[in-house]
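Quick check before the chapter quiz. The format below is the same one you will see on the exam, so make sure you can read both the input and the output lines.
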Amino acid sequence: MQKILDEIAANALKATDLGKVADYIPELAKVDPKQFAISIATADGGLFSAGDCDTPFSIQSISKVFVLALALGKVGDALWKRVGREPSGLSFDSVLLLERENGVPRNPFINAGALVTTDTFLNCSTPREALGALLRFVRAASDRDDIHIDESVAHSELDTAHRNFALAHYLASHRNLTNTPEHVLGTYCHQCAIEMTTVQLALAGRILLDAEGLPSLLSHQRKRRINALMMTCGHYDGSGDFAFEVGLPGKSGVGGGILVIAPGRASIAVWSPGLNAYGNSKRGTEAMAELARKTGWSVFG
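Here is the expected output.
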């Protein structure tokens, strides 16, 4: 496994097309696009890494996986009355889709849907309390205490969150928010600004594996459902391409990270800040396709 990761990292570092960093968030625009890291936490307790695996990065929308787990833990299947489970086919911040479907987001991984899950998790708590609970959950999942929120990224994101505010107000107009748009957006931007290394993220992803000795924070059925949503919706309008090339459930973030689950086998985290046209890590996606080819890992056999 270490040899495979070393080969993948070497190939990624040879690439000339690095993609484009998310420059619409000023703090993310400062990140060096040449960086690359990959880590694998296997079901039997192994941990393998290559590249800049000790460099923390903003997990951005990967946080939606953990918040979805907490929202489901709070209200169960009642969540699906407020958000759907279908792929969007449009960009992650589409206003058109939300308007067309009367304020019910297509799935919990596009921004509008994530605002609903954040609102659900936030309910009856202050933003500070909710974020504290989220950090405790992620730290418990990864068995690492040195995971924090980058306040500079959070404020940079909040200062430029005009479209997300539009989505939140549209949700509120359809009575699909229980908290104020300001509280929801403040919590959402801070959850996206959680900083993790690929090592920490791969370890945290183990909660979506079924194996003895791993953190048991979710039921078997909930793991299956979250993995299913990651497969169909985790890469926005690029989810079909990712499923075709990689064949594993994954969730991307505009910070350049991707969390991928090989059910029963491993949790994988890859990071390369440059994005492709869908807003997903370009070299990260290519690295995952290479890993799938070399290991034979796929939900399709």
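If your answer matched, good. Residues 42 and 172 are 42 Å apart (CA to CA).
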